[in-house]
Amino acid sequence: MKNSLNKSQIERFSRQLVLKNIGPKGQKKILSSKILIVGVGGLGCPAAESLVRAGIGSIGLIDSDIVNLSNIHRQNLFNSKDVKKFKVNVAAKKLKEINPLTKIKTYKSRLNVKNIKNIVKNYELIIDGSDNFKTKFLINDYCIKLKKKLITGAISKFDGHIFTFNFKDKKTASLKNFYQEKDISDDVLNCEFEGVLGTTASIVGAMQANEALKMIMGIGQNLKNQILIIDLLNLNFRKVKFKKKNKT
Known about the structure:
Layout: H1 7-12, H2 14-17, H3 23-31, E1 34-38, H4 44-54, E2 58-62, H5 87-98, E3 103-107, H6 116-120, E4 125-128, H7 133-145, E5 149-156, E6 159-166, H8 191-194, H9 198-217, E7 226-231, E8 236-241
Helix pairs in contact: 4-5, 4-9
């Protein structure tokens, strides 16, 4: 990357550049970063939009689903004309319109044991917007193996959970230290089973993007070995600590 920002970049990101914690140095980190978003849904859509607007250099989008009418109330990259179209195709087109300079790669498939390593290895940070714990645990395991940064989100009703992990740090606990895999089911924090308010998805997805930007630039506090629990119905926000165990 060039040593200095060009005129267009300075104008586009001017309100970020004036922040003392960011400035040109932080913006250049954003412009050179590579992020994979797993699941282009209620969390993935607002996360992707926020990151592209911030100037992320490269984004990968993985999802095998098509847009359904029931998606539109909470997945802010889609509208009624997008029904029956592949989510990754629609999202990529709209994100390019927001910021043509962001490189976008789409994967029209579901993340699984066979493809995860070859996909995840190309990105420095993973945003988990998946809607089932089998996928979340799979992402967790491979981010540990490949020493990646991971931001996990989950939503249901008016509630959200957010985790941040930097697996380059050996002292970092994992998702399995909080959720016990054998005791968890997909009706926990899953909007398909329990419903969700659209604004809950937008807020949690945007917060995942916020944590990603902070991690990329190395600023502020993070959620190492903590979970942020959000109750938007009663406006309660709390952090709960948990410990790393010998096996994750």
